[in-house]
Amino acid sequence: MGWTFPFGMRRADLVAERIAGWSRELPDLGYRITSKCIAHCYRGSAWKGVLWKVIEHSWVNLIDGSEARPDERFIACDLLEYARHYEGWGYKDLSECMGPCEHSCPLGYLVMVPLAKYGGNESWRAGVLAWHEHQATKLRRRRHDPGDVPVAATSRLAAAAAESSRPAAGVA
Hints:
Blueprint: H1 11-19, E1 22-26, E2 31-44, E3 48-61, E4 67-83, E5 88-95, H2 107-112, H3 115-118, H4 122-143, H5 151-164
Antiparallel strand pairs: 1-2, 2-3, 3-4, 4-5
Helix pairs in contact: 4-5
């Protein structure tokens, strides 16, 4: 809900802490949950920005080591900001289901977490695609050649658009 500012935290240390994996045994339920960050990047300035992450959760039976339930994967973003009165960096954690107001998520992350398999926020993903299209338009204008769009950018936009247009499994 709010911001967390560990006193005196450097940005590099905060990022390392936020992407660190963890594992918990839940003996009452009979399984172990493991969380790991499979991709991350920071987008922003020297004083504030967004840490984008793809997080994967897996569940394993404690008895036989088999998969207790299907893996979950989701896109998360941590808003990061430096605060002088805390002498360091803090964060506000959000996930895709919250429909964050940030849209600078890498397009590859949308492909890594397909709506059809893992679900997600379709309207937020449309905003991400629109943001990237806007960035590509700005790049074309700066080059003074409206038709000169890098092939890699165009193919990433097309792939992400195709992936986002598929219906989410189990979502009404």
